[in-house]
């Protein structure tokens, strides 16, 4: 029996392109669809578009996680094995492990004839949103044997948003998450690593659903669809490419221009979410502390009591490579405790 994407018993999370209600497009990491069902048959129908790397979806069925390889381009039926020893009632979460290295249209599930879809609990009332780069997306997070070391050679197979500090933090808080995260992205267009040589920055991507030029024109996000009580801004890590001007000349024109743009970005976020707490961070990934100094300076100048700058215990010095699962857990533990301490009105 086919369960179409617009079935009201399905539960979605994340910025999703709903232009075609029979084929919603997943772009951002942590974007997901959840279903409870009975029986021993489960298939997922998808259509993938690849920009780079191998592409995978994540699947958690009855608490067991697997990854599902996607075609580079085109439609595919994903057979998901159901463990009948766990009973006849099941729950599946199908989610985007990676950033806009690919876009996937979800075309529905299939369960056994005569089986049924059952009701899910309501979504959490707590909601967070994260704006960040590869660390927020969980890139290379599964390469745990490289904890505290540079990244291994990889082709996307180690990236998993489930193990990003961002989603870990949301789970610790019991919150839904929208993870507006893209590997290589910096604040400003023309800097960072994303979409070389015509680098796209968060200043252009933050309010979009589609933002990777490889997939066509940008499309805007309707902010009315999701209002977080807490927003985490994790930008400032890739901004030292192609030149680390903050380290080289803290009071120079480039550094002053970046601080001005960061302040304007915070104003845009505040404009969308007048009542949210905004927590500005970087990560454990090694970087020069001048970027954190700049963030702190901007946050103080904002004179907004609900915009805060938070530093981790090992901020900017924890690892030369991407965060692996234990390091993301470390960040999530500290960040969730800090957010709880703010006394947000969830």
Automatic annotation (TrEMBL):
InterPro entries (alphabetical): CE2_N (IPR040794), PCW_deacetylase/CE (IPR052762), SGNH_hydro_sf (IPR036514)
Pfam families assigned to the protein according to its UniProt record, in alphabetical order: CE2_N
Location of the Carbohydrate esterase 2 N-terminal domain: 12-121
UniProt cross-references to PANTHER family, sorted A to Z: ESTERASE, SGNH HYDROLASE-TYPE (PTHR37834:SF2), GDSL-LIKE LIPASE/ACYLHYDROLASE DOMAIN PROTEIN (AFU_ORTHOLOGUE AFUA_2G00620) (PTHR37834)
Protein name: Electron transporter RnfD
């Amino acid at each position: 029996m086919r369960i179409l994407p617009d079935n009201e018993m399905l539960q979605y999370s994340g910025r999703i392109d709903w232009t075609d209600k029979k084929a919603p497009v997943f772009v951002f990491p942590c974007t997901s669809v959840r279903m409870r069902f009975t029986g021993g048959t489960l298939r997922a129908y998808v259509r993938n578009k690849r920009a780079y790397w191998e592409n995978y979806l994540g699947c958690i069925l009855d608490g067991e996680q697997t990854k599902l390889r996607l075609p580079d381009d085109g439609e595919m039926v994903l057979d998901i094995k159901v463990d009948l020893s766990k009973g006849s009632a099941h729950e599946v979460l199908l989610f985007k492990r990676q950033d806009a290295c690919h876009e996937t249209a979800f075309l529905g599930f299939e369960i056994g004839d005569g089986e049924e879809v059952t009701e899910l609990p309501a979504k959490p009332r707590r909601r967070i949103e994260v704006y960040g780069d590869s660390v927020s997306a969980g890139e290379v997070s599964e390469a745990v044997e490289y904890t505290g070391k540079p990244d291994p050679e990889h082709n996307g197979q180690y990236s998993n948003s489930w193990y990003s500090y961002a989603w870990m933090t949301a789970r610790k808080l019991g919150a839904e998450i929208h993870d507006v995260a893209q590997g290589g992205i910096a604040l400003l267009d023309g800097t960072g690593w994303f979409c070389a040589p015509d680098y796209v920055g968060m200043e252009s991507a933050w309010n979009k659903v589609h933002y990777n030029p490889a997939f066509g024109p940008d499309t805007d996000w309707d902010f009315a669809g999701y209002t977080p009580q807490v927003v985490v801004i994790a930008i400032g890590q890739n901004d030292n490419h192609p030149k680390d001007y903050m380290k080289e000349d803290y009071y120079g024109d480039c550094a002053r221009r970046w601080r001005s743009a960061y302040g304007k970005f915070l104003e845009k976020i505040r404009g969308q979410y007048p009542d949210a707490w905004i927590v500005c961070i970087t990560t454990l990934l090694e970087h020069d502390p001048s970027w954190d100094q700049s963030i702190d300076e901007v946050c103080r100048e904002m004179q907004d009591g609900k915009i805060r700058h938070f530093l981790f215990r090992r901020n900017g010095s924890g690892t030369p490579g991407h965060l692996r699962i234990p390091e993301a857990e470390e960040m999530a533990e500290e960040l969730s405790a800090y957010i709880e301490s703010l006394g947000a009105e969830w």
